[in-house]
Amino acid sequence: MTKNKKDLRLQYKNLRKELTLDDLEEKSLAIANTILNLPIWEKTYFHVFLPIEEQKEVNTEYILHLLSGKDKEIVISKSDFESRGMTHFLLTDNTKIKKNEYNIPEPVNGLPVPSQTIDVVFVPLLAFDILGNRVGYGKGFYDKFLAECKPETIKIGLSFFEAESEIEDVFELDIKLDYCVTPERIYAF
Fold it and tell me: What class of enzyme is it (predicted)?
């Protein structure tokens, strides 16, 4: 059964609310362990979102540990709500992180990294379908950011839940995922 983005947003926000903190940590760790099976480890620049705890997003701390253990360059972003654009910075030991007014943890400053440099992007989402379409919060930050990346950049969604059969109101400008990782499996598109 196909569903529209608005219904899926509501459904998955509610499903997330039902997760306990233990569920959240357990599933986030399972996702990080599953990521080890992706064919991405020869890449250098990895973009990771820092989770909005209040929205019960995937805790990417485990992924950050994996990446730093493999000596990868880790990139995090700052959002500009007026332009709906994102600025990217290298995550270093000196990076100061502060939550913005929407509770999104962001770098205060740092070494800028152009979108074109990024090899792999871990994409936050609420829902996705078996075709690689995703539903985010509907602000378009990631669609805009992913459009700025080079075509071969690998886009990996992270989800606590399995795929929907189809999202009905997909737009031409929506950028599809290459993979989506859940605690159970990897979807390749």
Answer: ligase
Domains and CATH numbers, the chain: 2-188 (3.40.50.10420)
Q: Is 134 among the annotated ligand-binding positions?
A: yes
Model-level pTM?
Answer: 0.94
Any known ligand binding at 140?
yes
Q: What is the CA radius of gyration of the chain?
A: 16
Residue 141 is assigned to a ligand binding site: yes
The predicted-structure confidence for 25-69, as pLDDT tens digits, reads as follows 999 999 999 999 999 999 999 999 999 999 999 999 999 999 999
Residue 142, marked binder: yes
Element (H, E) at 78: strand 73-80
Q: Which residue has the tokens 């400008």?
A: 173
* Structure confidence at residue 1 (pLDDT): 66
185 marked as binding residue: no
